[in-house]
Automatic annotation (TrEMBL):
Residues covered by the AMP-dependent synthetase/ligase domain: 70-461
Keywords, sorted A to Z: Acetylation, ATP-binding, Ligase, Nucleotide-binding
Name of the featured protein: Acetate--CoA ligase
The UniProt record lists the keyword Nucleotide-binding: yes
A GO MF label: acetate-CoA ligase activity
Ligase keyword on record: yes
Entry-linked Pfam families: ACAS_N (PF16177), AMP-binding (PF00501), AMP-binding_C (PF13193)
Similarity-based family: Belongs to the ATP-dependent AMP-binding enzyme family.
Organism domain of life: Bacteria
Location of the AMP-binding enzyme C-terminal domain: 519-598
Acetyl-coenzyme A synthetase N-terminal domain boundaries: 12-68
Length: 635
């Protein structure tokens, strides 16, 4: 039996029990046998959730890129590492071998060094889904710089907030990006963001769409000429196990985004090990995760996890609807994709198209289907199972978070029997539990409450950049000695977990986490707006859509509401990004508040969901009279 590759359910249970009984021995064995270390650890794990402080493989030295690249050169040098499929299907795809990737990463590493980037410096990567994005990430890791990838669909304000929060020294971007039949002026967005960012000394620009852009002398450099002059070989910086590898921002329910910090050794071991098992990856498989690398899914399961396993990983620049809704299936057929990992929102959008298109493609290469990012509803699960997997490919409903670094609760394909809408069983080493609102653990099966994790796993985020107190308050204060996920979950009669959704003010729209506070702050900047509150309501494709309740200052009340709605969405687009636009905006005279002045979102949520039969006791509100008005005028 190999602990590294789990093939049967009994093996899963056996290995799981071992990983819980002797976590240190277990992870030490995995780390020892399957990775390249410059120096082994002195201590496998030390942890204290009350501080919180978590350290894995302390004393070890390594470079993650030697695990992703160097060690494959002898056996897999010519194997395709990254298979790039451009936005436009008529443009030639790129097959980048492990050797070519190694060379490109080294060249990029030299360029970064020549720009003065040193170990520990932060580099912001604002690049679309083109190979240079993966190359930039790996080049940072190669020289020990901390990468902070910002999704290239975010606005200039969102970008500058993230650059400033971690004082990035350099930005890598492109002249622009393709998105279906549109282009996006990325460099223009960067220029605007940098008006507010003093820490940035240089900008490296990739030529992608060949648009006219302005280059600021002394600050902006075209990347290609610099790469052309750089050597294709180079030494990797030796990193300590707990040195930060990257920062990735995620929305919180309040305040500015949280820069989750992931460190090197534990993250590497866990993402590689989960990748191998959750996708049952075999040597000649062609694996495709449709996520953008701007999110954690792309970091862990397009870049690091697959490359650590010497896999072939597909990077797709485009969107599922371009040139038509058959695009995903065309790619599956073209590359004979074996594992396909996507989000429920994409499945719902594709299901809406019916089955005519999908039937034109040969999907017989598929062995494993994955889902991630939000709860998958039963209808979407069955559509996926029937039409994509033809009832032969197990669906891996994988639950995890930016903060967890890797997949936490999931079936293993061909190992764990699946059940629609259930993420099923904890991954090896993961100890979930369900808590009630009073801090008591709900033991046994058939319980419903809040999902926590009792014991550290190797890829848990170690802190929030620059704000350890917030890390403690957000994740380790709700329940003593536990990591609180912010999600609700139930455990069924056989011990399978089902994630029921967020229990805080984070709303997941099309798989993107959106905190209500930054959107409300943006709306409140409109001169006519007095106050606002955002809630989610169910949406066929996006899972949730946003419903905004807005009160106007007196001077704004006479304004044309259609125009105001447009202006509000425009402000949101500028401050947060187009993904946060509101589907519905209701102007109202007042918002229901508690006597301490807190907006009662629970009531607003019910009204948005058109479920006003049981609003609970509203008599204790400061202004109960406004509730009926809001119901009467609801959209
Ligand atoms: O609410 C859960 C939901 O997505 C949140 C994490 O979002 P993010 O940090 O952006 O990471 C997404 C990709 C890992 C979780 O707190 N979520 C994620 N996967 C699932 C899910 N909800 C239900 N089922 C899932 N499989």
């Amino acid at each position: 039996m190999s602990n590294y590759h789990i093939k049967h359910l009994e093996e899963y249970y056996q290995i799981y029990r071992k990983s819980i009984r002797e976590p240190e021995n277990f992870w030490e064995e995995i780390a020892e046998e399957h990775f390249l270390w410059r120096k082994k650890w002195n201590n496998v794990l030390s942890w204290d959730f009350s501080k919180p402080e978590i350290k894995w493989f302390e004393g070890a030295e390594l470079n993650i890129t030697e695990n992703c690249l160097d060690r494959h050169l002898a056996t897999r040098g010519d194997k395709t590492a990254i298979l790039f499929e451009p936005n436009n299907p008529d443009e030639t795809s790129e097959h980048i071998s492990y050797r070519q990737l190694y060379e490109r990463v080294n060249q990029m590493a030299h360029v970064l060094k020549n720009q003065g980037v040193k170990k520990g410096d932060r580099v912001c990567i604002y690049v679309p889904m083109i190979p240079e994005l993966a190359v930039s990430i790996l080049a940072c890791a190669r020289i020990g710089a901390i990468h902070s990838v910002v999704f290239a669909g975010f606005s200039s304000k969102a970008l500058s907030t993230r650059i400033n929060d971690s004082d990035c020294k350099l930005v890598i971007t492109a002249d622009g990006s393709y998105r279906g039949d549109k282009t996006i002026d990325l460099k223009g967005i960067v220029d605007e963001a940098l008006n507010d960012c003093d820490s940035v000394k240089s900008v490296l620009v990739i030529k992608r769409i060949h648009s006219e852009i302005t280059m600021k002398a002394g600050r902006d450099f075209w990347l290609q000429p610099l790469l052309d002059n750089a050597p294709k070989d180079g030494k990797a910086e030796i990193m300590k196990a707990e040195d930060p590898l990257f920062i990735l921002y995620t929305s919180g329910s309040t305040g500015k985004p949280k820069g989750m910090v992931h460190t090197t050794a534990g993250y590497m071991v866990y993402t590689a090990y989960t990748f191998k098992n959750v996708f049952q990856y075999k040597e000649n498989d062609v694996y495709w995760c449709t996520a953008d690398i701007g999110w954690i899914t792309g970091h862990s399961y397009i870049v690091y996890g697959p490359l650590c396993n010497g896999a072939t990983t597909v990077m797709f620049e485009g969107v599922p609807s371009y040139p038509d809704f058959g695009r995903f299936w065309d790619i599956v057929q073209k590359y004979k994709i074996t594992q396909f990992y996507t989000a429920p929102t994409a499945i719902r959008a594709l299901a809406k198209q019916g089955t005519e298109l999908i039937e034109q493609y040969d999907l017989s290469s598929l062995k494993v289907l994955g889902s991630v990012g939000e709860p998958i509803n039963e209808e979407a699960w069955h559509w996926y199972n029937d039409n994509v997997g033809k009832r032969k490919s197990p669906i891996i409903d994988s639950w995890w978070q930016t903060e967890t670094g890797g997949i936490m609760i999931t079936p293993l394909p061909y190992v764990t029997p699946t059940k629609p809408t259930y993420a099923t069983l904890p991954f090896i080493g993961v100890q979930p539990c369900i808590m009630d609102e009073n801090g008591e653990e709900l033991k046994g099966n058939q319980v419903d409450g809040r999902l926590c994790i009792k014991f550290p796993w190797p890829s848990i985020a170690r802190t929030i950049w620059g704000n350890h107190q917030r890390y403690k308050d957000t994740y380790f204060s709700a329940y003593k000695n536990m990591y609180f996920t912010g999600d609700g979950a139930l455990r069924d009669e056989v011990g399978y977990y089902r994630i029921t959704g967020r229990v805080d003010d984070v709303i997941i729209v099309s798989g993107h986490n959106l905190g209500t506070a930054p959107i409300e702050d943006a709306i409140n900047e409109h001169p006519a707006v007095s106050e606002s509150a955002i809630v989610g309501f169910p949406h066929d494709i996006k899972g949730n859509a946003l419903y905004g309740y807005v009160t106007l200052k007196e001077s704004g009340e006479s304004r044309d509401h259609t125009n105001l709605r447009k202006e509000i969405n425009q402000i949101i687009t500028e401050h947060v990004g187009p993904i946060a636009k509101l589907d519905k905006i209701q102007f109202t005279a007042g918002l229901p508040k508690t006597r301490s002045g807190k907006i009662m979102r629970r009531i607003l949520r019910k009204i948005a969901e058109k479920d006003t039969s049981n609003l609970g006791d509203i008599s204790t509100l400061l202004n109960p009279e406004c509730v009926q008005d809001i119901i009467d005028e609801a959209l």
